[in-house]
Specification:
The chain is an alpha/beta fold. Helix content is about 45%, strand content about 15%. It contains 15 helices and 10 strands. The strands form 2 sheets. The protein has a 5-stranded mixed sheet, sandwiched between helices. It has a 5-stranded mixed sheet with strand order 7-6-8-5-9, sandwiched between helices. Helix 6 links the parallel strand 6 and strand 7.
Length: about 325
């Protein structure tokens, strides 16, 4: 009888140990291995197939979000219209966007805030067939773009840097970017404006790179977060940004290591794999007030904004303040 009791006690002890060991991996998965529970509800973040979005994709695919202990779902959009519709419908916590869209959302009563810049690139490509060699050659000429958007804003700003006012060139509305690419390739228009990676694709197909926003100091790309998410999940948003910055630093350290990734994971055209010039990704921070004021003034000049907005109406500084010490 005594031996039977010992056997039962030993069996119970072993069962407890086995249960503990089997539960441990599940617990670590739920906490990201860091001891803090991960919110099961993901941060839903809208991205585009562009340079701005690359660090977010790398952070996801290389496990940086998980390592920081935050659940993130990246939602891919092929055009700004679909992205903006998702933002307005409340289906996203955050999204890649631009300063003009941020102003429109604020003016429309949507409680969204700019939490940081993103690093992308817009540029103007001239037609070699039509003998366009510099921005100065575009005075009085046609430029294909999407009107009343961030594209036209960056065109106006880049041309202004060459002494050409917004009334001294002819903006031609070509909403579809692939059509702009085709038009410049075939010499059907003097110049077009494109974001990356189509900007590099246009140059690879014979276009002349005239100007880019990163060389003319124009900050247009931003990340928007809903204020509700910032107020209720600020810790998760901070972790999200830490993972983003880790990915950004890794890309900056060895951009050539990501050339295959551009095509295989980030939906860049295969033609730009070797030619693409990586942007330098910065620590998360807000746009300069002067940049926001310039964008708001442009909207007023173009009669696209009927309400008076200030830079502080658009931004939330909590993430930028936290990132300053990273």
């Amino acid at each position: 009888m005594k031996n039977m009791k010992k056997a039962i006690a030993l069996f119970c002890c072993l069962a407890v140990i086995a249960a503990s060991l089997s539960a441990r991996p599940q617990q670590d998965a739920a906490t990201g291995g860091g001891g803090t529970a991960i919110n099961a509800v993901p941060l839903r973040v809208g991205i585009m197939p562009d340079a701005d979005s690359l660090p977010f994709m790398v952070a996801r695919d290389e496990g940086f979000f998980t390592a920081e202990g935050v659940n993130v779902e990246l939602i891919n959009f092929q055009n700004p219209q679909e992205r903006d519709a998702a933002i307005q419908a409340g289906r996203l916590d955050a999204s890649i966007s631009d300063l003009l869209a941020a102003a429109f959302f604020t003016a429309g009563g949507f409680d969204l805030k700019v939490t940081s810049l993103t690093d992308g690139r817009y540029g103007i490509v001239g037609s070699s067939r039509l003998n366009i060699k510099s921005l100065a050659d575009l005075r009085g000429k046609r430029v294909g773009l999407s009107t009343n958007t961030i594209i036209q804003y960056t065109v106006d700003a880049q041309l202004q840097s060459a002494g050409i006012s917004m009334d001294e060139y002819e903006p031609v509305s070509v909403p579809r970017m692939p059509l702009r690419l085709e038009m410049i390739q075939n010499g059907q228009i003097e110049a077009v404006s494109l974001p990356e990676p189509l900007l590099t694709a246009a140059v690879e197909q014979g276009g002349v790179l005239l100007s880019t926003t990163d060389t003319t100091g124009i900050d247009a790309g931003i990340l928007l977060f809903s204020k509700k998410t910032l107020d209720t999940r600020l810790d998760d948003v901070t972790k999200f940004y830490r993972a983003y910055y880790r990915a950004a630093q890794k890309i900056n350290a060895n951009p050539d290591a990501y050339r295959n990734y551009l095509v295989e994971n980030a939906a860049f055209p295969a033609a730009v794999r070797n030619a693409y010039r990586f942007v330098t990704y910065r620590k998360p921070g807000l746009p300069d007030k002067a940049q926001i004021d310039q964008a708001l003034a442009w909207l007023k000049t173009r009669q696209l904004l009927s309400v008076d907005l200030k830079a502080e109406d658009l931004v939330d500084s909590r993430i930028a303040a936290a990132a300053a010490s990273w």
